[in-house]
């Protein structure tokens, strides 16, 4: 699509330059040179748009010079040439940025839709688990999930997407050290 858009813009630019040369300086078509620049910037991106803006500017300069346009001062010609290049460059920049912003907005909308689907699935699963009775092994504390017994950590990871880490509670620390041999050194209690 990028190459096709650039080639189509180049062909249109050539046709405009030819029409501009045939109509001579009485009828200026400089504004229409923005159409192929816009096409290139929209379909091919910023740099191809700038490239076509430069080509359009050079073609316009060639046509303006060879059709006998008259200026009271050559500085006016150079001013007009500069303004043509600026106009074409800004056109390419604006259209390429607009296309980029539109593509980005579409991608963000797709990401949002995917996140909403994931959220709906997670909410449905939570609602399913909310009123259910889970079987827990009295000895191993594993949870029955269908036909298999899984750890609490695996259950939380599988259904709630929660990663679990381990620590020791003050009550567990007290029970552990009360069962430890009398002379064993104890680590400091974290705050």
What does this structure look like?
The protein is mostly helical and 191 residues long. It has 2 domains: 2-105, no CATH class; 129-177, no CATH class. It is 68% helix and 3% strand. The chain is built from 6 helices and 2 strands; from the N terminus they run ααααββαα. It has helices at 2-23, 34-44, 46-66, 74-130, 152-160, 170-179, and strands at residues 143-145, 148-150. A two-stranded antiparallel ribbon has the order 1-2. A hairpin with a 2-residue loop joins β1 and β2. The radius of gyration is 36 Å and the shape is elongated. The two termini are 62 Å apart. The model has no long low-confidence stretch (mean pLDDT 89).
By DSSP, the count of extended strands is 2
Fraction of residues in helix: 55-70%
Number of domains: 2
Element order, helices and strands? Answer: HHHHEEHH
Q: Can you count the helices?
A: 6
Main sheet summary: 2 strands, antiparallel
**Average pLDDT level:** 89
- Rg from alpha-carbon coordinates: 36 Å
- The residue ranges in which pLDDT falls below 50 over 5 or more consecutive positions are none
**What strand order characterises the main sheet?**
1-2
Strand content range: under 5%
What overall form do the CA principal axes indicate?
A: elongated
Structural class: mainly alpha
Could you give the distance between the termini? 62 Å
Can I get a quick summary?
The chain has 191 residues and is mostly helical. It has helices spanning 2-23, 34-44, 46-66, 74-130, 152-160, 170-179, and strands at 143-145, 148-150.
